[in-house]
Amino acid sequence: MQRLDWQVIRRLDGLLQGDYRSLFYGYGVDFADLREYQPEDDIRYIDWNVTARMDTPYVRQYVEDREITAWFLVDLSPSMDFGTTQADKRAVLIDVVGTLARLLTRHGNRVGAILYNGQLDRNPQGEAKDRRIERIIPAKGGRNQVLRLIHDLLKQPRLPKSAFTDLRSMLEGGLMTIKKRSLVFILSDFISAPNWERTLSLLKQRHEVLAIRLWDPREVELPDVGPVWIEDAETGEQLYVDTNDPQFRKQFAEAARRREAALTTTFRRTGVEPWSLSTGEDLVRAILRYASIRKQLHRGRSSLSGNNAGVFTAPVPRT
User: What is the pTM of this model?
Assistant: First the structure.
């Protein structure tokens, strides 16, 4: 905790000037105002009764809730153990969770976590049950809660390669566990079996969701190092390839671009904010970069409301 406070939090305090609200802002329940629809607005927030009377689209706005309950949905599947630069994805994940949890709890907010390892639960006979193993850490506030999150993440075992991750199970766990509207961080490399997008959309309808995608540079571009064995981080399947072949490296990079484009489309369609974080990137600089983007987004929402600071378009929370 002292290393976290000195090496990360103190640096952020000076650079963010204590404005952690540029990173986190919640959704409130109190109706504030109506205003005309803007092209950037979500059509789900249109008030159709007022729209019919005024003969032009109007959207509802709500007063911002400054007390946040945050949840971390953490992917600890085997692919998260991959890394070729300064650290593997799991190590970066733990640093991110610790940092964000510390920033939140210092201002009186509560944080909890759902740790998902992607493995099937098994009965005493060794037969797989139809559910995935996950560990739930209830949301609480304070310094001790941050220490517990970090401790529990550090002690989670690295799992043997067995099967492809199913993110749908992790997201469904979040839907069932998180009842009150919250700020939800999804930390994963999003290397998963398909058909998790609908569950993500359902999660977004109930909560404010931020998808933190962790990736390693060697997952998007191969170096020219000659013939090598490549192993699937999820299944353990191995393939012998020649990285001297420029055509193979080109096809590898194109496949990575297609995967990135598909993820971008999914996040845009579901309305989830993405944050892409490389294992080779300095965490403080990454947070500052994202804070700048998020601050501009928040300012844009507030400016659409005229001079009503802290008021923005949002859905009514579901409990």
Answer: 0.75
